[in-house]
Amino acid sequence: MKQSEFLNVVMPFKDKLYRLAKRLLVSREEAEDATQEILMKLWSKNESMGQYKNVEAFAMTMTKNFCLDRLKSKQAGNLKLVHSNYSDENTSLQRQLEAEDSVQWMERIMQELPEQQKMVLQLRDVEQYEFEEICELMDMKPTAVRVALSRARKTVRQELIKKHSYGIG
Amino acid sequence: MALDNIEKLLEKYFEASTTVAEEQQLREYFAQESVPAHLEQYKPMFNYFSNAKEERFTKQVPLKTRSNLYKWISVAAVAVLTFGIYLGNEYQERKKAEYAYQETKKAFELLAENFGRGTEKVAYLKEFEEAKQKIYNNN
Predict the structure, then answer these.
(1) Contact A157, B16 (CB under 8 A)
(2) Do A157 and B59 touch (CB under 8 A)?
(3) Owning domain of residue A115
(4) Taking Cα atoms as reference points, which of A35, A30, A27, A26 lies closest to residue A63?
(5) A39 near A17, Cβ under 8 Å?
(6) What is residue B59's DSSP assignment?
(7) Of the candidates A83, A82, A64, the residue with the CA atom closest to the CA atom of residue A140
(8) How far apart (Å, rounded) are the C-alpha atoms in residues B45 and B26?
(9) Are B77 and B15 members of one domain?
(10) Residue A120 belongs to a domain with what CATH number?
(11) Domain boundary among A51, A84, A117
């Protein structure tokens, strides 16, 4: 496969890889490195890439596994991922800041979710994958995917209601 | 869209039994400016999902075509080198040959000079011969 062909295949979903990586690793730099790593791994496999019927699913699975490994090794090394993507919550009255704040809030809520739910929510609600695709990617049964997704959504709702009724930001 | 429809969809949504299309409807609904007060709390959620999809991977990935380039450069370098060595050798040989030629030429010149001197001396012999003939003839 030529480089241009490869890019044509990879371009449409490279952002998805990045967003999944960022969801898991939180830090932008880490996510960029991970995505780069995955793309380079894919490129080194480009000879055999024609064999995969769904390169995107393959790449997403690679990203998932790579990031989970990454997280495991970080935890084992007793290192916390450093992320500076959101600033501390500031209680501004301006509407624009409010909106920004709620985005940060959402990000934080999603960070608190267990990894599996985090990924399912990301794949479904951000990337709009079908259930079958998520099952394949996550190596989960359809019912398990539904349960995880439902739990994740409900947790997010609960947190949002909590925040809403406190009326912060 | 009718409000009760949205409420129904929301219910289904939290049971994870909505389709992708229905979820798209929800996102579109919550993207509008004002929603009823009791639904306001869901707004950040759906807006966030829509926003999150906007994030782009902008870093350039150095694909290893450079190694390919390096390969060709090294091939070219080897070719140039062998050609250079070949030409250099040839040049050196020519130099050597020229030197040998000059040396032989010098040697031959030396020889020729000495020959010349030899023939000069032989010229005297001729004189002697003539004189001898004269003497013979007179007798």
Answers:
(1) no
(2) no
(3) 92-169
(4) A35
(5) yes
(6) P
(7) A64
(8) 11
(9) no
(10) 1.10.10.10
(11) A84
pLDDT band at B100 (very low <50, low <70, confident <90, very high): very high
**What digits encode the pLDDT tens for the residues A99-129?**
667 778 888 889 899 999 999 999 999 999 9
Question: Taking CB atoms and an 8 Å cutoff, what residues of chain A touch B53?
Answer: 19, 126-127
| Residue B52 to residue A19, Cβ atoms within 8 A | yes
Q: Which range has the worst mean pLDDT, A146-160, B81-95, B110-124?
A: B110-124
Is the complex ipTM higher than 0.85?
no
Q: Do A127 and B53 touch (CB under 8 A)?
A: yes
Torsion sign (Cα): B24, B29, B33, B37: negative
B39 domain-assigned = yes
Same domain, B45 and B78: no
Q: Which residue has the tokens 């500076």?
A: A84
SS3 B55: coil
- The span from the CA of B59 to the CA of A33, in Å, is 9
In a domain, B65, yes or no: no
Which position has the token pair 């890889």? A17
Per CB-CB distance under 8 Å, the chain B contacts of A17 are 57
| φ, ψ of residue A20 in degrees (nearest 5) | -65, -45
B2 close contact with A: CB closer than 8 A: no
Q: Which stretches of chain A are DSSP H helices?
A: 3-25, 28-44, 55-76, 95-112, 115-121, 131-138, 142-166
Which token pair is A14? 């490279």
Domain that holds residue B77: 71-139
Handedness of CA A123, A124, A129, A131 (dihedral sign): positive
The token pair that represents B122 in the structure block? 């032989």
Q: What amino acid is encoded at A63 in this protein?
A: T
Question: What CA–CA distance (Å, rounded) separates A38 from A59?
Answer: 7
